[in-house]
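Record type: ASSEMBLY
Status: queued
Input:
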Amino acid sequence: DTAVSQTPKYLVTQMGNDKSIKCEQNLGHDTMYWYKQDSKKFLKIMFSYNNKELIINETVPNRFSPKSPDKAHLNLHINSLELGDSAVYFCASSQGRTSGGRGTQYFGPGTRLTVL
Amino acid sequence: KQEVTQIPAALSVPEGENLVLNCSFTDSAIYNLQWFRQDPGKGLTSLLLIQSSQREQTSGRLNASLDKSSGRSTLYIAASQPGDSATYLCAVGRASGGSYIPTFGRGTSLIVHP
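Status: finished
Output:
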């Protein structure tokens, strides 16, 4: 069984559109994350969410917003897509709310977003 | 602001060599350090997690050490194999309020040729 899954795997869209990427984890973890990996393979955290607290990387534009319908899901919504949003987006999860989610991180397979 | 540097950026070695990958970080107030591997077009797979109170962790042919005071970690790969070819990433975790924020290095791209 896949521990952390993301859909879609590939997403190609036009500039200005709004899109969502879904993430689900079946590990029972209480903390989930979104990362962006750019064309130079540099991985940067975008959000950390543990059901009560959302930590936003201050460099993330407010066009990006995480939505968590329940503990097992953290979806990423992106409004008014721009060319520079093209990247691979990874979802991850870890365990340990009382310790700030500091356990081992498990990553999803990634979603490659291409904005034309 | 935490900065994580990985050296070397790329490495190409013949099969069977013992390897050392380096990771350095600027802020020693960390909770843990994690080593990952990433295969082309795939997500990250956790290799080893070292808590701030620990000095090293071992798993099979892999050994990771942590020296918080000097801001360094090394990943040692014994008897390298072609299947070890991948990008190896180091991530240093810190606290922000009640949450945990990891900062990644840019990785070491490893090729082990037969």
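Annotation: Chain A is about 0% helix and 50% strand.
Annotation: Chain A has a mean pLDDT of 89.
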